[in-house]
Structure prediction request, 240 residues.
Amino acid sequence: MRAPATDLPIVLDRVSLRAGGTTIIDNLNMTVAPGAPTLIVGPNGAGKTSLLRLCMGLLTPSSGCISWGGRVDPRPLRRAIVFQRPAMLRRTAAANVSFALAQAGVPRRLRTRRMAELLDRVGLADVAARPARRLSGGEQQRLALARALARDPEILLLDEPTANLDPAATRSVEEIVRMAAQSGIKIVMASHDLGQVRRLAGEVMFLLRGALHECAPAPDFLDNPSTPEAASFLRGDLVI
Prediction:
């Protein structure tokens, strides 16, 4: 029998990304495998967003190689990404999810029930008929997560999804992320919030100037970092 298609593990082998004379990602080796959430931290400009885009296949490395489940074809099979400021279609919340289901190839006869399940999963069942662009920032982020989950992903890439949200909205988004991880979805998430890292992370990757300086279980990284750069970052020092 043919093995089921998979996007895991994602393996980056000596990957660099350059734009003009600037190195954004620098000779990076890493593997994203099934398991607890991986949170990517580092100062602004460290390369966190670019790394997520490389993992999604939205950017092509300047050098090195990326593989997904052993394939070098970047087309996503079962991966999805949610950006810090997701774009909303000029449709209702329900229609946004239905469109995502159609793009994922879900048969028409199944979409209505699946759409309702996804909206309920992210706590938006009561605003299904509301225009998506009239939702609050937190509601829009939850809707973006519902659209991503419509792809039935095995890996979900998140680019600081709570960066612009208040504490209540942050808690709602984190709960969705936690439930997704508990269902077996691999979470890879960039975050600027060390409290969030402590709440969600299984492992932490620390980026600085596009290079991976540390990768460790979350308690080890947070309480006993192995590099002076990571220790400075955790103290709140400006790390450049």
